[in-house]
Amino acid sequence: MTQHQAAGAFPAQSLPDFEAMSDEDFRQTVRRFVEAKYPDIPRFSQHRLRWDEVKPWYGVLSAEGWICPTWPRAFGGMGLGPGKHLILIEEFERFGCARVHDIGPVMLGPLLMKFGTQAQKDFYLPRILSGEDIWAQGYSEPDAGSDLASLRTRAVRDGDAWVIDGQKTWTTLGMDANRIFILARTDPSVKKQAGISFLLVPMDAPGVTVRPIRNLEGHAEFCEVFFDAVRVPLDSLVGGENEGWAIAKALLGHERVFIGAPRLSGNALARLRYLAEARDVFDDPALQDRYTRLKLDVEDLSDLFEAYVDKLRGGETIGPDVAILKIFQSELYQRISDEMMELAGATAGMREPEDGDPRKHAAGTWLAARPTTIFGGSTEVMRNMMARYVLDLPTR
Amino acid sequence: MDGWIENARMIVESAAAIVPEDGGLDRVRALRFASPGYSPEVFAEIGTMGWLQLAVPERDGGAGLGMRECASLLVALGRGLLPEPVVSALLAQRLTAGRADTDILDGRTVMVAAWQDRTDSLDFAGPAGGDILKLHVDGAAGAGAFAVLAEQGVAIVRAGEPGVRVETAALQDGTFEGTLTLSAGNPEWLPVADADLALDEAILSHSAYLLGLSERGIEITLDYLRVRKQFDQPIGSFQALQHRASELKIQLELCRAAIFRTAARLDAGLSADRRAAAVSRVKTRAAGLAMLMAREAVQMHGAIGTTEEADIGLVVAKAISQANRYGSARLHRNRHFDASERSAA
User: Fold this and answer.
1) Whole-number pLDDT of residue A2
2) Which residue, A110, A239, A309, B129, is the most exposed by fewest CB within 10 angstroms?
3) Which CATH number among 3.40.47.10, 1.10.287.70, 1.20.140.10, 3.30.1330.10 corresponds to the domain A255-390?
4) Which residues of A touch B329 (CB under 8 A)?
5) pTM here?
């Protein structure tokens, strides 16, 4: 751990044993931490902040040793189990903390711990902890979305290098990243899932081009990444050659539960009510009935979410049925945003929130809710998966 | 864990004596529309197993078990489409709290609850004077006694007593409900400690029964999707049906989580408004689940789903006759809204 600290731009403090704390003590610790340390940057932002905006917060988390909450302490993390991690997330969200660029801490770090070589762990993990490396995920391609395994970006071995040609898209905050991990086809002659490898690529390598994609609100949260004869060393491969699909599919532990957390829907429901009261229509019984239907859905989702968190706490294995949370949460979030649009009347279409009040921003909520049924497995693909792996229905 | 899981496991295992584990519905089918629509002998057996005193506090001679154990039992009974009026009997025992005669306490005489003043209402205070009229009394045809709930308290009256009149009507599931009129005389009114709590427990228990029968209906439907072939394919391989089947599973698990976590909260103790909001939330989901299951089961089975000879037909008939008992989803959405506004105020 000292070696990690030495390598970092933000040297970490030595940490107390958080798992030994009671939940309430830990909650108070997080609350005090956030109140004392959150920098002068936006809170409760509806869109992702760019790296130059969010960097001070990454710096604080890194310097305090809080940037990788779920990593084992031996790797420089906080060593939090699912219960404590949930408390941390809840308190960060209560305060409205901006989401940092977390692909490294959340995705790549755990993957390297499981599949990486010792040299890869020694080199890359400290650089994630310090904020020296900001990672992007290069999975989707223009013709490989839900059918990700049909991806066409090629990597060919040439002497001491992999040579990469192709294109990735919908890369979240890729223009802020200095490194990207990609899935590339290394054997076109076998079944499509069997010929894919997992590679690490520096964004400043010759032949890498980035083009931001603006969304309807004018924010660029995604980008396209082009690879034109990009050469990376052979040791950029994680896991075995042609074993990339298994790595990408590897279970990301409790992240699969947390992606279905009820907070997005819960926050949207609070905005729906706020908007209804601001419009002076909350006493309409028809609206109350529709509001109540949505409220009941949010509360039942919360109960189901808590049931999964209890399973995690008890060390139970989470099965493929966890997809229920993400499907229901994202569709519910959208139904609430639909209701907000209707309620907002003609102000629904305004580019900026009415009176500058983000809680009245129906279009912002509606647009923010759209990607949730698309990324991380579209609702349609997840229902296919449920049919096969949960309901044991026949395949065609 | 605080021991409830082990209790629940033992209760559910013992339920196999009443509800066959192979899921056979022959007994249920044979009892349809044959008054009283259930078996008093099986009811007595249920009494022998101690289930009738499950939710009665220990100080009143009951088992004093919590709502999670109770819900676990009712899910198992719902899976078997049990026709005996257990939820109403549990409510009756809970209201009378050990004060009934022995033949009622042990289940040799069936006692059910007569509480409801109006259709789709939870009012039980009754009229200020004159006859007392109670609607939608479960299992009324075979009941030898009734726990009549009113503003004055609870009265235990026997069927056939002077002034006690019961008219029965068949339900779609082949059981019979009753309308009870209590006219002459003045029954002995016993005080009831917390009738609202007892009624909320019954609503939650009935929701668990609906969860059980819905789970069963979904299983039967999924089995059918795996074997029924059209266009040379099992119909369960069609994506349109797969996506609808996944929705059944989603609603099922939401309902299960809501029931058991609400049961745990009730066991820990809640204010009356929070309890009403929570229980009404559960009943809304359970009624919605049962009706969703019924619609999809019929559509996915095709015409066979509307017949008595198919097991799924019995499940569907049970769902449509039980979904609104103890309050429709509409009633409970309104009650949830009012109660949560009060508790937030």
Assistant:
1) 34
2) B129
3) 1.20.140.10
4) none
5) 0.92
